[in-house]
């Protein structure tokens, strides 16, 4: 029998990156994060998984390797937070702000996987006029990895969202990674992602009240006949009135002048465009609205936009659920990376 390829997910969150690798046939042997809510969601959707709640800035890779009896792992994946890198000269220096990134490097150094995948915000490539990028490449090269990096757009890989992420992939033994080519099919639109989900709330565990209207919706419902996390937000009457003035795909510029500055952010009063993939969804701020309903998307709608299948259930408070969804890597984009990597492993 062919042995499953294995991975460890650092900074795993609720497990979007993990899910993409699992869809490609890999097996998680450990997932680590410091946020209990996200780990509960991770474990709930993977009853067999092992999770560890730990601060990766202080966690010992050697200690974890011994505690869990991990002899080897094929891939280490994850997205260490990168806010405020501390730079001196042409290197990332040893500094409190860099500990999480350095922890990822240390795990790779101790576990010596065949490959690693590290994702981050696109501007990590330009931070410090490229110093951060060059330092990352240098750190992993010193461990013996050939590293490639590229900014990927999620909608190129079947995700109904134009989210961009910088991805670094390193391979041992002199192998070179080539990033997956964008799929040739049409981009999945917000309408194709969401149009079967109703305007009103659905009680968790209910059967679908509507039929599918797109291939993407058929995919989202695979192996599932119950719906969860579709609880709407009830806005006050004034907010509903203002949202109703914004057309499909519009924003604050479509409002009367006296209402345009009612929210002091440039993305205020923005509606999804039903004919295009969604813009990047975030961790639950309340300025983005459904393309036709006068409310923000539900957690389930946000999860659809991220390419989580409907059988993936989010736990804890609704605020926490929005944050878990917004922080995740789109699983279908992760799957494209994982499948491309599989050929080399």
Concise structural overview:
The chain is 29% helix and 15% strand. With 345 residues, the chain is α/β, with parallel strands linked by helices.
Structure description:
It contains twelve helices and 13 strands. By secondary structure, it is an alpha/beta fold. The protein folds into two domains: 182 residues, 3-Layer(aba) Sandwich (Rossmann fold); 138 residues, DNA Methylase, Chain A, domain 2. The strands form four sheets. The protein has a seven-stranded mixed β-sheet with strand order 3-2-1-4-7-9-8, sandwiched between helices. Strands 5-6 form a two-stranded antiparallel ribbon.
Fill in the keyword field for this structure.
single chain, 345 residues, alpha/beta, Rossmann fold, DNA Methylase, Chain A, domain 2, 2 domains, seven-stranded mixed β-sheet, two-stranded antiparallel ribbon, 12 helices, 29% helix, globular
Classified in CATH, the superfamily of the largest domain is Vaccinia Virus protein VP39
Rounded Rg: 21 Å
State the helix count. 12
Average residue-wise pLDDT? 92
User: In the CATH scheme, what's the topology name of the largest domain?
Assistant: Rossmann fold
Profile the largest sheet: 7 strands, mixed
Which stretches of 5+ consecutive residues score pLDDT under 50?
none
The H/E string reads EHEHEHEEEHEHEEHEHEHHEEHHH
Give the amount of beta strand, in percent: 15-25%
Largest beta sheet: what is the strand line-up?
Answer: 3-2-1-4-7-9-8
Q: Please give the CATH class of the largest domain.
A: Alpha Beta
Keywords: Methyltransferase, Transferase
Organism: Muribaculum caecicola
Protein name: DNA cytosine methyltransferase
């Amino acid at each position: 029998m062919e042995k499953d390829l294995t991975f460890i997910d650092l900074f795993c969150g609720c497990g979007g990156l993990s899910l993409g690798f699992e869809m490609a046939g890999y097996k998680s042997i450990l997932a680590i994060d410091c946020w209990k809510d996200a780990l509960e969601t991770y474990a709930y959707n993977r009853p067999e998984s092992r999770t560890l709640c730990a601060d990766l800035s202080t966690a010992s890779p050697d200690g974890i390797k011994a505690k869990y009896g991990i002899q080897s792992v094929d891939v280490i994946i994850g997205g260490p937070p990168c806010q405020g890198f501390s730079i001196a000269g042409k290197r990332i220096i040893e500094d409190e702000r860099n500990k999480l990134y350095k922890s990822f490097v240390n795990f790779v150094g101790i576990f010596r996987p065949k490959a690693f995948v590290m994702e981050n915000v696109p501007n990590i490539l330009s931070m410090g006029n490229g110093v951060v990028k060059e330092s990352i490449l240098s750190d992993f090269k010193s461990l013996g990895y050939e590293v490639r990096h590229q900014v990927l757009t999620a909608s190129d890989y079947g995700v109904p969202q134009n989210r961009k992420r910088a991805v670094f992939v390193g391979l041992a033994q002199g192998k070179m990674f080539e990033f997956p080519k964008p799929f040739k099919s049409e981009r999945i639109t917000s309408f194709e992602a969401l149009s079967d989900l109703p305007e009103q709330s659905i009680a968790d565990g209910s059967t679908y009240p509507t039929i599918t209207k797109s291939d993407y919706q058929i995919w989202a419902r695979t192996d599932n006949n119950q719906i969860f996390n579709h609880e709407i937000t009830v806005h006050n009457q004034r907010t509903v009135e203002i949202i109703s003035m914004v057309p499909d795909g519009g924003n604050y510029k479509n409002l009367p002048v006296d209402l345009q500055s009612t929210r002091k952010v440039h993305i205020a009063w923005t509606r999804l465009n039903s004919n295009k993939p969604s813009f990047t969804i975030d961790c639950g701020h309340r300025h983005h609205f459904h393309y036709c309903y006068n409310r923000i998307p539900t957690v389930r709608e946000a999860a659809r936009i991220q390419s989580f299948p409907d059988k993936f259930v989010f736990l804890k408070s609704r605020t926490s659920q929005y944050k878990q969804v917004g922080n995740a890597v789109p699983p279908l984009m992760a799957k494209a990376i994982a499948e491309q990597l599989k050929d080399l492993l």
